[in-house]
Amino acid sequence: MFGLRTQIYLKRLKGIVVFSEGFVKFLKSKDNSNHLNVMEKVEHIGIAVRSLTDAIPKYEQLLGTPCYKTEEVASEQVRTAFFKQGESKIELLESMSPDGVIAQFIEKRGEGLHHIAFAVSDIRAEMEKKKADGFQLLNAEPKTGADNKLVCFIHPKSAGGVLVELCQERNDE
Ligand code: ZN
User: Fold this and answer.
1) Which of 55, 63, 130, 157 has its CA 20 to 30 A from that of 32?
2) What is the pairing mode between strands 78-85 and 41-48?
3) How far is the CA of 30 from the centre of ligand 1 (A)?
4) The pTM is what?
5) What is the pLDDT of residues 95-141, one digit of tens each?
6) Alpha carbon of 147 to ligand 1 centroid (Å)
7) Ligand 1 centre and the CA of 133: distance in Å?
8) What percent of the chain clears pLDDT 70, i.e. is strictly above it?
């Protein structure tokens, strides 16, 4: 039904979700430190694509679930599309300009896995903790992201090569 590469890709994607969920459980199990129990769950996985028009039907097929929302985040120069996968989501990201961060990412590394986002209940407190623990934050203040979230990114250089997003529901801001 799907090409071999697509099947391998889907397998890898599932592996990443399972790994990330396991990692959060592991962190929660080591509950003896306040540093280690605040990344609540994998909120979403961000994937860079050249074209949402092309990617949305492909991912609907791949994931077996419809895209339920698209949204422009003008400040980040991205168009996003969301899919629900159980407790987590998949976020597709398309650049709105030829020199946007997603366009640059694709130019360097091609389409594919871009970031892993973790839900936090207090993003400012979490940013302070991460900074104190030596992680390099890419923004000093929480930014408005897609999907009604406040977000902050951690540089992949300080996080094992993975671009990590902290995100908090905006209700109380
Ligand atoms: Zn994201």
Assistant:
1) 157
2) unpaired
3) 26
4) 0.77
5) 999 999 999 999 999 999 999 999 999 999 999 999 999 999 999 99
6) 9
7) 22
8) 91
